[in-house]
Amino acid sequence: MFIVNQDRNTTINMGNVKEISLHGKQIFADDTVIGKYGTEERTDQVYNEMLQTLFSPYMMLKDAELPPDAMKNFANGNVILLKSADREPDVKFYDNGLYYMPEE
After folding, report:
1. Strand 77-84's sheet: what is its strand order?
2. What does the alpha-carbon distance between residue 55 and residue 104 come to, in Å, rounded to a whole number?
3. Structure pTM?
4. Is the pLDDT of residue 95 over 70?
């Protein structure tokens, strides 16, 4: 998994990062600032969204129709259809391994 910093000029390999932390209005990967936001509340929101994304590598739907807004996931990752003889295919959205820090 890789993180692209907010300025879009650095890519960080999460396999080499020991700590992701937030301090005030900044988010750090070890000692590197990867994002700066206007308020501490926004910084906290981005931090939590980032952690959810980084540590939720896939979403699986079983025996369900694809919701209309799920189409955006096709552009964000790889899709695998798992067929089963006794039921509809399962759909898994696998993360593409790249997370972009939000600009604002």
Report:
1. 58-61, 87-95, 77-84
2. 22
3. 0.63
4. no
